[in-house]
Amino acid sequence: MWQKTLKLVLVSILVGILLGIFGATAAHYFRAGIHFIEQFVSNRFDNANRFVLFFCSLSTAAFIISLIKAKLSVIRWHGPADTIFAAHRVDNELDIKSGIASTLAAFFSAAGGASVGQYGPLVHFGATLGSWLKAILKLRISTDIVLGGGVAAAISAGFSAPLTGIIFAHEAILRHFSFKALAPIALASGTAIVVNNYLWNSSTFIMGLYSATDVGPMILISIAAGPFFGFVAILFMFTILTFAKLPTQMGLNQFQSFLIAITGLSIIGTFYPEVMGLGTSAIINLTTGSTLFLMAVAILFGKIIATALSLGFGFFGGVFSPALLVGAAAGSIATSVLSWMGIQSFQGPELIICGMAAVAGSVIGAPISMIMIVLELTGSYSLALASTIGIVTATMISGQLFEHSIFDKQLLSRGIDLSQGRMGIRLMEENITKITSSKILKFKPEVIVELAKAKMVKMRVNEAYVNTHDGKYIGKLHLKSLIFAKPSDAIIKYTDTEALNIKSDASLQQAIEAAANFIGETIPIVDRKTGTLIGTINEGDLLKMYLDLQGQTIDLEKR
């Protein structure tokens, strides 16, 4: 027993360290590569027309992304929603090829100037690294360890926030506390920040330390501003998801979608270059300077439209960074409004930082992580405490009126409802054909009662089924209905055509709901397309399948 435990501990430590190293390296070179390309373009084409510059850079990015998609045969790009879904299943490893391709697409999208984020792709890439590591080393460890460790390392290195990485992995991705995974996740997050700081001396993009926040007034202001931040987050998510449907609704091909995106983004970038790319410099300007009200409004709406246009019409990337800028702009707007009202109980970017965390927390569904990120990025306990009310109020409103996060909404559009929990997802995924029995007694409609009754008694069954000559299901035949029937009558006269039947494409959840009030031996399973009877199930098989899935889910939760 102790040898097994020691092996598990050593493997967990090794995996945590490797994920931390890989995650930090990926995060650094992802950001460094984008910065290098941005600087190269800026230095070489500093005097170029802004519209032409954006049009050319975005066109180049679109060409490379199209090439990646074609050469690697990618059907769709993968992101944090796929990571969350994988964490909720016991039999679903991440597609490594799609994960790498999606990260490359996000890199070139951001480097080309599209309004996309870096943290979503890094989160999914970190999880993909975990899956890859588990596959090549043939590790017999929980998926929670490799997914959570990869995610924690990416967030830790990306934000220089190791505690946030640990909490984010549990809160936003795993969505349950995994005791056995905690140590390797924490080790991956800690290793990532050590490697990041030691090799590249990286730091957060918010450089100031804010320690003089007056908690009392800020909490009251945070309560008032929280609903506003929540509605801004809803507007942001709604716009992105609406734009994502437009190319299909408009019947556009890939070239047409890219052309619309490139033209629209080039126009936006001509007038408001602050909203293009990752938007890091715009966030710094908002948190360190005094931005005018109209400029803050322009940045807010410009960033929302630019991000929706980028993600909806061909480019790929995250929503975390754009949400931070939208939140910062919302915080700047709220600060200006309060100033006009004569409310100046605080000085500095407190409300702007609160807005960043509140909007981003609502979008990704991780309020506790955002409270921690305020603490780690600013070094101010009082500011983190004061921002808490605004963050949780915003996430509560967006969660009630929209969805837990944009990732949940994306999965819901694919028929995956995370609100049902792991057990609910498993019940909806499992098809009843796995427990369908083909050993059934079938009759043609013209068979007489005497023959049918004799056959049923001989086979010791109380139920049989009636089909047409071409195999189409008609109904169920009960032995008790034949006892006093005329022996020479055709059985079709006594067939129950209204008996409960379940379609063959039904899930276990749907079958259980259908059989809730069922009384009898077996339930017929009918092919939805052909109408033929393919077999039967009974309540015992349904219960056994349910208990098996429940055991697997409980085992996953305990890991």
Distance between the termini: 17 Å
Q: Specify the CATH architecture of the largest domain.
A: Orthogonal Bundle
Total strand segments: 6
**Spatial arrangement of strands, main beta sheet:** 1-2-3
One letter per element, helices H and strands E, the order comes to HHHHHHHHHHHHHHHHHHEHEEEHEEH
Biggest sheet details: 3 strands, mixed
Give the averaged pLDDT, no decimals: 86
Radius of gyration over C-alpha positions, nearest whole angstrom: 29 Å
Uncertain runs: none
Quote the CATH topology of the largest domain: Clc chloride channel
What does it look like?
- The protein is mainly alpha-helical and about 550 residues long.
- The protein folds into 3 domains: about 1-200, Clc chloride channel (Orthogonal Bundle); about 215-420, Orthogonal Bundle (Clc chloride channel); about 430-550, CBS-domain.
- The chain contains 21 helices and 6 strands.
- A hairpin with a 6-residue loop joins strand 5 (about 525) and strand 6.
- The chain is elongated, with a radius of gyration of 29 Å.
- The two termini are about 15 Å apart.
- About 50% of the residues are buried.
- The mean pLDDT is about 85.
